[in-house]
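protien #1 (seq + structre)
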Amino acid sequence: DEIKKLPNEEKLKIIDELWESIEDDWEKTSSEENSPEVLSLLEERLEEYEKGEKKSYNWDELEIRVRYNLEQQKNGKK
């Protein structure tokens, strides 16, 4: 509610600072996601998939599997 009372110029400064903070966090996360370990793991998984050793799932299949596994955990079956 306090922010709403500020002049637009102040609101824009806050938005700018928040955006910069988000960008900084995003860059940190992005660089962690692109670490050599993560890239190596992704390459391994892609090779396994291409060799037919791993199956892929579309979103609907994945959702069903996740819901099933959560239900199993909830019921103490896993």
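ok now protien #2
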Amino acid sequence: DENRDDMVARLASSVYKQGEAARDANDMAAAVDHFRRVAVLAPGSSIVPTAEYDAAAALIGLERWGEAAGVLEDFRARYPDHELNNDVDEKLAAAYLKSDQPVKAAGELERIASTSTDHALREQSLWQAQELYEQAGMIGETARVLTNYVNEFSYPVEPAIEARQKLAGIYEQQGDTAGYHYWLNEIVIADAGAGSERSTRTKYLAAKASMVLAEPVARTYRAITLTVPLDQSLPAKKSQMERALDAYARAADYGVSEVTTAATYRIAEIYDDFGRALMESQRPAGLNTDEFEQYEILLEEQAFPFEEQAIDLHEVNVGRLSDGVYDEWVKASLEALAKLMPARYAKTEKSENAVASMY
């Protein structure tokens, strides 16, 4: 009939107004029933999408999260281009969260992060998504979202560096050393370029990262043995030693107490190791007794300054006791001094007096 479309529209409007009246009367259950009847009685009406959306909102008000999620899913599937879809994403994320569906909630939050024009909302959504994946034990998805976060949100600097720290932790747990070191290096780079946004926290994370990154450099140094002819093996070991010292020095430069004491200890350890490596180096063949003794004296002369440097650095670490700093690395320096200078440091009761005498 020619009047059919008009009658359907009037019927849809009438039922919708019943839903509005129930909602205004705070009878949300009745409002849901009326709003959902619109699609049943007048499926072709233009008001159906709005009625479905309002039904979902009422279900959320009633905390009927599972039903609300179902209505919202149906809405998005049937009306993909509707202007209310942006709000649907947020409501659906909330419904999934409340109905204990964290993985689906994370997916919705990713969707919001990719479609919203609100920068802060996009950032918060992506961060929350990776947290939900992490809670669900989906480490691969967590790493993927964190990587997206770092690529898209370099600022503010601190949360972006925290994201890098989490990524480094993930790769470390997975035994992926290359990935672990990559993200540690990214922390160092991000902190160095942070400018006015550089904070105590970013420097702390960068200092810890630098300390870890120095370790493989030191291992490479230790792996080089001194063999004859010494004038060929010595430059290679000394060159790598300088690289290791520079790496630990960069870590110490951040001024983070626990990193500074660790780096100081490691630097002292390298000097001590270099001196011992000289003394334990391969001797040339064919030396007579006098030549052998002269060679030993020469090695001792070469090794002595490195041992002295190690002692000086360990004493610098121990000197921090007067500032109230006593951690595992200060303790380790005390133990090292007890071996290097037993007459002065071997007894615990003398160690503190020795430190006091330095000031």
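The chain has 17 helices and no strands.
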